[in-house]
Protein 1
Amino acid sequence: EQAIERQETQVEEHIEAFGAEHAETLVMRSELAYSYWQTGRHDDAMAIEEDVLEISERPPGSDSPGTLRPR
């Protein structure tokens, strides 16, 4: 349980620093979901994974690093 609490704190801090849609944040959230799943917190795991999937499937915005073009 302490490991999950640490993961939760790290995810919260990463969201504050980089935002909820940052690629590394999504990976960290997915890893937290896996930990939840392994400890029987299936509903929590599924909620996170559904959110991560929804964000990941969005098309990149015009300010996304992958879509910026030199002028």
Protein 2
Amino acid sequence: EGFRQRLAEAHLRLARAAARAGLRGEAFAQLDAAIEAGLADAQSVRKDSELAPLHVDARWEEVLRRLDSRK
């Protein structure tokens, strides 16, 4: 596990916490940071129940598009 992978996972954990707290803007900022750090597992993100509160936000589809483009 490299540094960038651990960094991406840390941002993903922060995104989950922000989503649970109802802080959508922060959740999306953390998802963006996770993607920039190398997060590329679109299927895992799609199925992550902790991120479900973000599905109603228009930014969710953009996150998925960015992840899909990293395959």
Protein 3
Amino acid sequence: QAAVKAVPDARSDLVRVLVAAGAVEEAEKAVAGIDGAESEFLHALILEAKGNVEPAIKALEAALEADPAHV
């Protein structure tokens, strides 16, 4: 069961690595299935990487609203 619980964490890590590598389209696909504040945070990273700063800020605000301790 621990491995199943680790899958979302691994997917989040994958999204971060893809964004850092400039593979934004792949990161957008990998973020599917991640919920809550983590999803909003990862969407913010993707949006920022695409140069969409204002939507990225809104996504970060949504992440903070969903879970103030997350970001």
